[in-house]
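As a warm-up, study this chain.
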Amino acid sequence: MTVDDLDVAYIAIGARQALDKSAIGYSEMPFEGELAYIQACIDQAPLLGKAWQDCSNEFPGVWCYEVAEPFGQAFGRHLLLRGECGRAQSILEGIVASAMKVSPA
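Now compare it with the structure written out below.
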């Protein structure tokens, strides 16, 4: 599976936003520092690549803005709350489903 560099970048942007908004100090992080936290988030980029392949023909928006960055935020918050990495798929599915909703004209 090819990993899109923009997915990686926007996941990292979202994860950083989640970290900045959290009340967790570096000493309380469930990771060995910020780099390990960001790495845990961007390690999920192949999931986004697969999701993009599955819906690219009908996706109505800008993937990086509407999926990758919000995924980084949501998954980052999840990890900061000591959530399991195994929830990445369900978090992503919720974000994609929300982004796929198109208002009637």
